Amino acid sequence: MERLLTVADAARILGVVPARVRQLANEGQLPPAATTVKGTRLFRLEDVEQLAEVRKAKRNQADPASASAAQGGQGENDE
């Protein structure tokens, strides 16, 4: 059985505020798996984790020095 997450849970995993999760859903980057009767969006754990990996990869491409440091590597100026 798939695990469904609330907006708040998805935000914690992605490291963003809940409003950003709603924005990502509106933009089609994180489609809701279900919507409750009251309109609460629910997201698949797998979808949220996949988006988190994509966002992490993009951040690492944008700033290779911090990506290296995050992986325990040395930057260009380190000896």
Quick rundown:
The protein is mainly alpha-helical. It is built from four helices and three strands; from the N terminus they run E-H-H-E-E-H-H.
Overall number of domains: 1
* Strand element count: 3
Low-confidence runs of at least 5 consecutive residues: none
Please tell me the CATH architecture by its name. Orthogonal Bundle
Helix content: 40-55%
Radius of gyration: 16 Å
Mean pLDDT: 87
Work out the helix count.
4
Strand content: 5-15%
End-to-end C-alpha gap: 50 Å
Shape, please? elongated
* Structural class determined from secondary elements: mainly alpha
The biggest beta sheet reads: 3 strands, antiparallel
Order of helix and strand elements from N to C terminus: EHHEEHH
CATH class: Mainly Alpha
Strand order of the main beta sheet, please?
A: 1-3-2
In the CATH hierarchy, the third-tier topology is known as Multidrug-efflux Transporter Regulator, Chain: A, Domain 2
Question: What's the layout of helices and strands?
Answer:
Blueprint (H helix, E strand, L loop, with lengths): L3 E2 L1 H8 L3 H10 L6 E2 L5 E4 H18 L1 H7 L9
Helix pairs in contact: 1-2, 3-4
Structure description:
Helix 1 packs across helix 2. This protein has 79 residues and is mainly alpha-helical. The protein has four helices and three strands; from the N terminus they run E-H-H-E-E-H-H. It has one domain: Multidrug-efflux Transporter Regulator, Chain: A, Domain 2. The protein has a three-stranded antiparallel β-sheet. The model has no long low-confidence stretch (mean pLDDT 87). The chain is 54% helix and 10% strand. Strand 2 and strand 3 form a beta hairpin.
